Every structure is written in structure tokens, then in C-alpha cells.
Amino acid sequence: MTRGWRADPGAPFRMINPVLNTDSYKTSHFLQYPPDTRRVFAYAESRGGAYDQAVFFGLQAILKQEFGRPITRRDVDEAQDVLRDHGVPFNAHGWNQLLQRHEGRLPIEIRAVPEGTIVPEHEAMMTVVNTDPDFPWLTSYVETALLRIWYPVTVATISWHVRQRLRAALEATADDPAAELPFKLHDFGARGVSSEASAALGGMAHLVNFKGTDTLSAIVAARRLYNEPMAGFSIPAAEHSTITSWGRTHEVDAYANMIAQFGKPGAVYAVVSDSYDLYNAVDHLWGEQLRQRVVDSGATLVVRPDSGDPVTVVAKTMALLAERFGSETNGKGYRVLKNVRIIQGDGVNPTSIGAILDRIIADGFSASNIAFGMGGALLQRLDRDTLGFAYKTSAVDVGGAWRDVFKDPATDSAKRSKRGLLGLVAAGAGYATVPVDGERFEPLDGQRNLLRPVWRDGQLLVDESLTQIRHRIVANEAPH
Fold first, then answer.
1. Which run of H or of E encompasses 46?
2. pLDDT tens digits for 214-270?
3. d(Cα 449, Cα 367) in Å, to the nearest integer?
4. pTM, to two decimals
5. In what order do the strands lie in the sheet with 459-460?
6. Residues pairing with 424 in the sheet
7. How far from 15 is each of 19, 170, 243, 450, CA to CA, in Å?
8. Taking Cα atoms as reference points, which of 138, 153, 68 lies closest to residue 455?
């Protein structure tokens, strides 16, 4: 727990002007609430989509980056100029009052489920309420920044569901599934996202579930935002430019150089091998000309196929490697390659991973033999609708009395929102959203609200490490 946390001015990806970190139309909302509105209460949830459970992650990063720096006179003056010319109202009195009364810190309280919790769809993950009755408009104003939680939650959720598929395959076919699992899905997505900020936030979300990544921005962000000295790991690896720079007639020399440079006892290195003819490279170059060097090096060569139908190519590559390098049968009756492994990084998504695993297991091979690299399908092929994220007002305090607020569109019942003051409690093996009181925001039936205060009036109240969140993920996993 850290009280009174303040943003490091050198922290990455900081929004320049927090007053403008909203949608244009929200600048007029301070004029739209009923007279004598004192507090506005809102919640965020996944309304359902590709997955019926979501991994809550990323709020700590958003709070540190977007909320940690107090608003300044310069921010307010700039916003007033911009919004005047933009054609929308500006709440000059409100922002000036915030500077004077709160020294630029937003008078709001944010409660949230602990990061790493697996939350079912349609349950509240986070609530927001203003703490100063003169600032009811702030609860909605901060929606734009806070609802970006959809991105790390969605990445973490996709990654987590792949983790469950890999975990099941390893538990069925590997001797030490717990040791292998953290390195079975590698993040290849840094070049496929819209910005470094996305790479950092999405890359960290993946690292909740795994420890393999090539997204260095995520490593740096985890150090700065999640107190994690080293969140993930990688290995030396070739790309097509380094292999093809030797020329086709010297392909084998390019591979020999990889062995010479990285083939040390106990080391692991990866070599993309489809620049010209994958099967020739596996069968003859690696499997015949260089086989003894690979074996004698004491290192593990990871062959990377990078084209063709992933299921077919991986299966044939594995069969060729088994023929050339041999295999052993593990304690669960599945074959494990000697000296070599495979990483598949082309055409990788949750569906293809499942299909590849099904095929190699049907062929008698352990999931120990393969790892996956996922890029765009992990960090970019998603949007707010993937999990149906929404942030809605559910109660307002008018004249000292709370009243329920909700919407119920006749044209789309899926967009019906919750009403009242809300919290989250344990319910059997899962969770349930329940009513809470209007003062302490604790459940009316005496249970404990699992949405704990994480931010209040400019102070970060919970500052966890990625290690703590990872432990929570593992604790939440049911045995297969």
C-alpha cells in the first residue's frame, strides 16, 4: 500500500494536458445534471463478447500515467483556449475551484477489483464517485481516460485464455507443465500496434500470464509502473534479413554462424528457417550437415517455420526434426524432441494454437516441443467491443438523497445498464454485483465489497508489483 504516491515526471507516455483527456461533448455535461446534484456514481463492466470471463489488469498503469500529475494553471488556461475555439463550453469556475480547493488533484474515489482477478461478464469491475459535492460532473468527465482499461483487460484476457489452452495441453502431455507454461506464448506484437504506449500497456497485460516477450516497451513500463525489475525474457533469434544476407548458396553457413555465435551449453536460440525451402533446411541443412554441431553445442536450437499452413507445417517440421535428431518418450507417454524445439510465429491466434496443439498431440508429440509467438492477434486485433466494455452512471445524489439511474433501450436490451450504488462480492465460485450503501459503499447484506479503494483525491492507495498480480492469476486458476 502506498499513500501519497506522486507521478515521476520522467514516467513514460504521460498525457500532456489532463483537462483535455476527455471527449469534447463531456465538457458541456456540467450544465446538464439536475439542480443540486452533489455526487455521481458510475461503474465499469464487460457486457460480454468473445469471452465470458475477463482478466482485470491495467488500472494501476492508467492511474499513474493519466491521473498522477496535478492539474496546473497552464493546463486550465490551455484547455479554455482550445475548447473556446473548438466550439464547446468550458467549466472555468469548476476547474478554477479545483485548482484552489484541491491543488489540481481530482476529488474522486476509484474502487476496483484487485488486478489479476478473473471477473465474469456483466459484473462490476470498477466504480467511480466524486468526493467533493461541488464536482459531480467529474465522474463522467474521467470516463474517457478510465475506460481505456478495456485495452489491457482485453489483451490480458486473450492471453489468459490461450494460457488455459496451453496449460491443459501441457498437463496432459508434459512432465513439468508448471515450469514450461510461462514461456509457451511469446509476445511478438510491438511492431503491430498503433503506438509505443499501446505496446507498453498491451505488452504488460500479456506479461500477467507469461514471461516471454520481445516487446521491450512493456519491460520498461513494468519497471516504472508495476515495480517489476524484470518482467519478461527473450533469447537470441535470427530474422530473414540476417539469414538471407548470406545468400541462398550460403544458407547453411548462416545457420552454422548461429551455432557458433549462440550455441553454448545450456543456451537457447531461435533460427527462422523458411527463407528458401523449410523442409530442405530442416531435413538436410539442420538434420544432416549441421546436426552434430547442434548436438555437440549443448544448446537447444529452436526452429521457426514462418510460412504456410501453420497446422500442416508445424506437424511436418516436428516429424522431420524427430527423424533427424531423435526423441524420447516422457512419463506421460508422449515424444519429446532431443536438442531441438519449434516456435511458431506465423498465423498464430487462439484458434490456430488450439489446432496446432491438437494435431501434434494426435501425432504423439508432447506440447513441450513447441512455443508460440503471437503479434497482431495478441495486441492489436481487438477493440472495445471484443469484451463489450461499458462505463455507466448508475446513481446520483440530488439534494442529499441517492436515486437510481439507468438506461433501458427498447431497441437493444443488451445495452440495459445497472442501477443504484454497486459493489462486488464473492458468490459461490464466482462473483456477484450487489447494492451498497451511500456512505461507506459496503454491501447492504454485510458482506465485504471486493471493489477496494485504489485511488482517492490524487493519491494512489494500492501499488502492486506484477509478481503479486501473477500470483493472483495462478491462484484463480481452477485445476483441469
1. strand 37-46
2. 999 999 999 999 999 999 999 999 999 999 999 999 999 999 999 999 999 999 999
3. 41
4. 0.95
5. 401-404, 389-398, 37-46, 124-130, 108-112, 452-456, 459-460
6. 433
7. 10, 42, 41, 30
8. 68
User: How many residues are there in the chain?
Assistant: 480
Name the residue with cell 484487485: 114
The x, y and z cell numbers of residue 247, run together, are 545468400
pLDDT surpassing 60 at residue 1: no
> How many angstroms separate the Cα of 244 from the Cα of each of 167, 188, 247?
36, 21, 5
> Pick from 168, 109, 137: which is nearest to 37 by CA?
137
394 and 423 Cβ atoms separated by less than 8 Å: no
- The grid cell for 37 is 446534484
Whether 110 and 127 have beta carbons less than 8 Å apart is answered as yes
In the block, residue with C-alpha cell 544476407: 245
* Cα three-residue angle 241-245-250, rounded to 5 degrees: 130
SS3 426: strand
Residues 6+ apart with CB under 8 A from 183: 210, 211, 212, 233, 371
C-alpha cell at 309: 499452413
Distance between CA 93 and CA 49 in Å, rounded?
Answer: 41
Q: How far apart are CA 252 and CA 250, in angstroms?
A: 5
From the CB of residue 263, how many other CB atoms can be counted at a distance below 10 Å?
21
pLDDT grade, residue 413 (50/70/90)?
Answer: confident
DSSP state of 268: E
Strand 401-404 and strand 389-398: pairing? antiparallel
Q: What is the pLDDT of residues 308-344, one digit of tens each?
A: 999 999 999 999 999 999 999 999 999 999 999 999 9
C-alpha cell recorded at residue 82: 482550445
Alpha-carbon gap, residue 385 to 415, rounded angstroms: 12
What confidence score (pLDDT) does residue 476 get? 82
Give residue for cell 458510475: 42
In angstroms, rounded to a whole number, what is the distance separating the alpha carbons of residues 458 and 452? Answer: 16
How far, rounded to the nearest angstrom, does the alpha carbon of residue 379 sit from its chain's CA centroid?
8
